[in-house]
Design a protein that fits this description.
The complex is a heterotrimer of chains A (about 110), B (about 500) and C (about 475).
Chain A (H helix, E strand, L loop, with lengths): L1 H4 L5 H21 L3 H21 L4 H29 L4 H17 L1
Helix pairs in contact in A: 2-3, 3-4
Chain B lengths: L2 H21 L4 H27 L5 E8 L2 E6 L2 H27 L5 H20 L3 H19 L7 H31 L16 H14 L11 H4 L5 H10 L1 H17 L7 H24 L3 H21 L3 H32 L10 H4 L1 H15 L5 H15 L3 H27 L15 H13 L3 H16 L5
Antiparallel strand pairs in B: 1-2
Helix pairs in contact in B: 1-2, 1-4, 2-3, 3-4, 3-9, 3-13, 3-18, 4-5, 4-9, 4-10, 5-6, 5-10, 6-7, 7-10, 7-11, 9-10, 9-13, 10-12, 10-13, 11-12, 11-17, 12-13, 12-17, 13-15, 13-16, 13-18, 13-19, 15-17, 15-18, 16-17
Chain C lengths: L1 H10 L1 H17 L4 H29 L15 H20 L11 H20 L4 H21 L6 H31 L15 H19 L7 H7 L3 H27 L5 H25 L3 H21 L3 H27 L11 H4 L1 H14 L6 H15 L3 H27 L18 H15 L2 H12 L7
The chains are: A mainly alpha (about 110), B mainly alpha (about 500), C mainly alpha (about 475).
Chain lengths: ~110, ~500, ~475
């Protein structure tokens, strides 16, 4: 559709690239086990979404809002990763989930 | 007093009774006095309402309007009034008997037991007087919740899973089957109010009518239609006063009343459109009666035997309702009355026996009639009524049922009912006969001083009630006729 | 004079509804002692609730239009006002309820937690009052990040909520990237970013618009904990305290569901994308109903059980919305009220006695009869027992579904109710028919007041179920007052 509307533009390629970034970022954020890498995936997804917004002709305000939200997410995420390392001694989600299961079992037994 | 006030009182008295019994558990004398006194109040109100119905008065109370066009409402009609009088009347006898059992057996938490019995009585009264399907549904659910603690009363490892099975069966069937049927009816008719002549008459196609009938009848699991009957044997784990409430006075009769109300006030002439479902259900019910009676024969514990026995009898109510003739509906109504009287007598007698002798095995009943003649006289009379021997109440109900089956051209249904009656004879007849014919036991009883008047008198009076239909059958036919012949007087 | 101020406040009610909690949050952070800051939070939340309820009453019951132009891009519609009032009331009750557990997570987070709740509620309210999709995105993220922060801050006694907070961040972050992408696509396809223009816009690229709307819904579904996108909620809430349960499990989920309801109501009425959008909502709703019900039946943790029951309830909201009719929207609003009341009663009752697992519930009725009453009311509503608001919500859904020929949707709701019988019955049995195996660990003395919101919610659950006329009317009017204020 976009290609049909603007055949001589780079927009379709850029839009596809942006969408690919979003997909890669989201997949990384959901699938990877290392918390830092997941956070990085979020950043990639956010940048991809911002790029897509730009290509799709969203107003500047949209980009500003997107950047602000992304910044807030990363700041909060970094703080939580530090706390995870302090509390669990690891940032690997498999180990963290395992520790939670143990906590759960201990809680049920007591 | 106006009929509205009486209606409010008949519904509210048992609730107040439960509250007071819980608040004043001691001294036992005062507690029992409250329990019996409020049961009498409920009976008085029910009798007043029956008289009001006979005078062609009407009464309707609305407690809430949770949905547009749907009230939580209760109203008087001949069927509800009759059931209320019978059940609250037997409820008075049961209140006396339960007080006696609680004392004789040192039942644990007697106040809680009596309170939930009262709540169960409130539930069945609400079912009887429900003015629409929604109110029936609410009363039905409330009754299931009130009866749950009765099944769980012992609190042991057997009682808890049994109580869970009891509640799960009753609530799951009502939510899974009855509720969709009710909403479907609402979407067809735009209202849920019961009316003589049927809400659905002239409004449903045959397919819808058949599906709806199946949903309603299976959804009212309190009627114990297989395979929705598992709650009934599960309830056998309760103490005897609870069993009387569940199997004779509240839960099982509520199922019969529910099916009868649906057949009469929701379907009416539309039952003809649901003929296929009705016949399939009649087969199910007929076979269920026979199988239940056979299972009863195999049971050696009196509670389990009586549970299956009353199940077989309760299915006769459903069969009568499904026959879709005035004769069938009348047979169903009579069967509820007869079953309530007989089952209450049998269970109270078994409760008395358990309290005095500590015996609950069928084999241990031999010769007991010689030492407990009053209790076992009641037991024998109630057994005869369950079997269908004239002149007891069960005979009239079965006579009308067989007449209705023949009138519908379903002679095989009459045959099924007759086989079930013969099987009932085999599992109750010898039991009652051996109680008198056998040699009196020589070993010591749990309570050597014998049954108190609180334990013996209710059994005899309830047994005497099974004779009532000998004179009341015809007046009751006239009294009930407006519900299936709305154009009549 | 007072009357003039009242009128002025009413005229600026939407703005006040957003600003009041924000001011309250700011004041809390500089107020010092925890109890003092909590009192400020209570005052701000109650004031906000009064404004919101008054505004909703005037608008939805009298159908008048008292909104002043204030130069801020606020936009008032029926669903937004109804849901904003609900969020404000839930916020006030939640803030009061967390009073007893204020210092549970340590001294430093004590003022911060209610402040985050207030800020989050302001975010959700903003999203319900905005016209622009970008502003909606920013407001939603404000509400969501406040919820993430609240979870992380309260992971002190137990570390599991920290893991939950990180899951919230990653899942929610992925959702927000998708949402942002969806907004861009929808804006491009519809030729603008105004939410109210969707039903009327000549959408040139319906596929792009449909994909965009679906991505926005997906982003919101993550935040609302709709299955299968709810991996964060049991971890975050299951072992958290009252702050997390009420601030995230009740308030956060309610906010996200409300925004989802409002957005979906606009998107589904856009002729070009409505049909496909409806199918997507219905599919997601059906999945959520079933998954939530199954997981609730299998749950051994009381808070998680409630989370899963909420997931099932969220599915019912989506199913209602998928009907795409005013009756469906009204049913969705009733479901939101039912969810809020049941959730408040349930969490409030459980956390009053520090109950987490089902085993701790044994004999709870003897130890804490009022809290047990609240849980019972919540459980009854969740199972759709008659004469509770849960029954009402489900009835409206089934009725609307049957009217539209969606028998399967009615069947799913019945299945959800059946599952409710099993898990609800299990709770009731444990509370009333088992012996206690732990001592009562709740707060005594004056802090029993913290149980009041749970009891209010429990009473509301039953009272609305008995006499729902006014609320049904309000929901019906709200669903009709969709595009601007034209009924």
């Amino acid at each position: 559709m976009i290609a049909a509307a603007a055949p001589l533009s780079l927009d379709p390629a850029l839009a596809a690239f942006a969408c690919a970034l979003v997909v890669i970022g989201v997949a990384s954020a959901l699938v990877l086990t290392n918390a830092v890498k997941r956070l990085a995936g979020l950043v990639i997804a956010g940048i991809g979404a911002l790029a897509a917004l730009a290509v799709l002709g969203a107003p500047a305000g949209a980009l500003t809002a997107g950047v602000a939200v992304l910044f807030a997410q990363v700041a909060l995420g970094a703080a939580i990763v530090v706390r995870l390392q302090e509390s669990y001694g690891s940032v690997a989600s498999s180990e963290i989930d395992g520790a939670d299961l143990e906590d759960d079992a201990r809680g049920s037994a007591s | 007093m106006t009929p509205e006030i009486a209606l409010f009182c008949v519904l509210g008295a048992p609730v107040l009774q439960a509250l007071l019994v819980m608040l004043i558990p001691k001294p036992p004398g005062l507690r029992d006095l409250i329990h019996i006194g409020f049961s009498l109040v409920a009976l008085g109100c029910a009798a007043y309402l029956m008289n009001a119905v006979a005078q062609h008065e009407t009464a309707r109370i609305v407690l809430a309007r949770p949905l547009p066009n749907v009230d939580l409402a209760f109203a008087i009609d001949p069927l509800g009034a009759l059931m209320a009088v019978v059940l609250t009347g037997l409820g008075v006898l049961h209140a006396v008997h339960a007080a006696g059992v609680a004392r004789a057996k040192q039942e644990k938490a007697p106040a809680r037991l009596l309170a939930f019995i009262a709540l169960a009585m409130a539930g069945v009264t609400a079912v009887a007087f429900s003015a629409n399907l929604f109110s029936l549904f609410v009363a039905y659910q409330a009754l299931a919740l009130a009866a749950f603690p009765l099944v769980a009363h012992r609190g042991d490892e057997e009682a808890q899973p049994a109580a869970r099975a009891f509640l799960a069966t009753l609530l799951a069937s009502s939510i899974g089957l009855f509720l969709p049927a009710m909403i479907w009816t609402y979407s067809i008719a735009g209202a849920l109010d019961f009316q003589a002549g049927g809400v659905l008459a002239g409004r449903v196609d045959p397919l819808t009518a058949n599906v709806l009938l199946a949903l309603y009848v299976m959804g009212i699991a309190m009627a114990a239609i297989p395979p929705m009957h598992s709650w009934l044997p599960a309830s056998s784990n309760g103490p005897f006063p609870a069993l009387v409430a569940i199997q004779a006075l509240a839960v099982l009769p509520a199922g019969g009343i529910g099916v009868l109300k649906v057949a009469t006030f929701v379907f009416g002439p539309a039952m003809r459109d649901a003929a296929i479902a009705a016949q399939v259900l009649i087969v199910l019910v007929g076979v269920g009666m026979i199988v239940a009676a056979l299972i009863a024969l195999s049971k050696q514990d009196i509670r389990e035997r009586l549970a299956y026995s009353v199940m077989a009898q309760s299915l006769a109510v459903v069969m009568g309702a499904l026959l879709a003739l005035p004769a069938g509906l009348f047979a169903a109504a009579l069967q509820i009355v007869a079953l309530a009287c007989a089952a209450a007598t049998l269970l109270m007698a078994a409760g008395t026996t358990m309290a005095i002798t500590g015996r609950s095995k069928v084999a241990d009943y031999v010769g007991l009639g010689r030492v407990m003649p009053w209790t076992f006289a009641g037991f024998a009379i109630a057994s005869a009524s369950m079997i269908g021997m004239p002149p007891f109440a069960g005979a009239w109900a079965k006579l009308w049922l067989i007449t209705a089956a023949a009138g519908s051209g379903l002679v095989w249904a009459a045959v099924l009912a007759s086989i079930a009656a013969i099987l009932t004879f085999t599992h109750l007849g010898p039991l009652a006969a051996n109680a008198f014919a056998g040699r009196a036991p020589t070993d010591a009883f749990k309570r050597p001083d014998g049954a108190s008047i609180l334990l013996a008198a209710p059994v005899i009076l309830a047994a005497a009630a099974t004779l009532s239909l000998l004179v009341l059958a015809d007046p009751l036919a006239v009294f009930l006729s407006p519900i299936w012949t709305p154009e009549g007087p | 004079m007072n009357g003039a101020y009242l009128e002025l406040a009413r005229a600026h009610a939407p703005l006040l509804m957003i600003v009041t909690p924000l001011v309250g949050a700011a004041l809390m952070l500089i107020s010092g002692p925890a109890r003092m800051s909590w009192l400020i939070a209570c005052a701000a939340a109650v004031f906000g609730a009064v404004i919101a309820v008054d505004f909703a009453t005037v608008l939805l019951m009298q159908l008048t239009h008292p909104v002043a132009e204030v130069g801020v891009a606020l936009f008032v519609d029926g669903i937004g006002v109804f849901a904003a009032a609900l969020v404000a009331v839930v916020l006030a009750l939640a803030i009061v309820a967390v009073g007893a557990t204020l210092k549970e997570s340590g001294a430093s987070p004590a003022p911060l937690s209610p402040a985050l709740m207030l800020a989050g509620a302001a975010g959700w309210t903003g999203a319900l009052m905005t016209r622009d999709l970008i502003a909606l995105f920013a407001s939603v993220e404000a509400g969501w990040l406040a919820a993430v922060g609240l979870t992380a801050v309260n992971a002190v006694r137990d570390r599991t909520p920290l893991n939950g907070a990180f899951r919230m961040l990653t899942l929610g972050g992925a959702g927000s990237a998708l949402m942002l992408l969806g907004i861009g696509m929808l804006g491009r396809a519809a030729g603008g970013f105004e939410i109210d223009a969707l039903p009327l816009a000549q959408i040139r690229m319906p596929n792009l618009a449909g994909a965009g709307a679906a991505l926005i819904v997906l982003g919101l579904c993550v935040k609302a904990g709709v299955a299968p996108l709810h991996a964060w909620s049991p971890v975050a809430i299951g072992r958290g305290g009252a702050m997390i349960a009420l601030g995230v499990g009740t308030l956060g989920v309610l906010g996200a569901l409300s925004v989802l309801t409002r957005f979906a109501a606009y998107a589904i009425t856009a002729p070009e994308i409505g049909a496909g959008f409806s199918v997507a909502l219905a599919g997601l709703g059906a999945l959520s109903v079933v998954v939530g019900a199954v997981q609730a039946v299998g749950s051994r943790n009381l808070l998680r059980l409630s989370v899963y029951a909420g997931v099932s309830q969220a599915g019912c909201v989506l199913l209602s919305l998928a009907l795409g009719s005013p009756a469906g929207f009204a049913a969705a609003l009733m479901q939101l009220v039912a969810f809020a009341a049941a959730s408040l009663a349930f969490y409030g009752g459980a956390l009053a006695g520090r109950v987490h697992s089902l085993d701790m519930l044994n004999g709870y009725a003897t130890r804490a009869p009022l809290a047990s009453g609240a849980i019972t009311a919540g459980a009854l509503s969740l199972m759709g027992a008659p004469l509770t608001i849960g029954f009402l919500g489900r009835w409206r859904l089934v009725e609307a579904g049957v009217g539209a020929g969606w028998w399967w949707a009615a069947g799913l709701v019945i299945i959800a109710s059946l599952a409710g019988v099993f898990y609800g019955g299990r709770l009731v049995e444990r509370m009333y028919f088992r012996r206690a195996n732990v001592t009562y660990a709740g707060e005594g003395g004056v802090w029993r007041v913290a149980l009041a919101p749970a009891l209010i919610a429990a009473i509301a659950t039953i009272a609305i179920g008995l006499a729902p006329g006014a609320l049904l009317n309000a929901a019906a009017n709200a669903s009709r007052l969709m595009t601007g204020l034209a009924p």
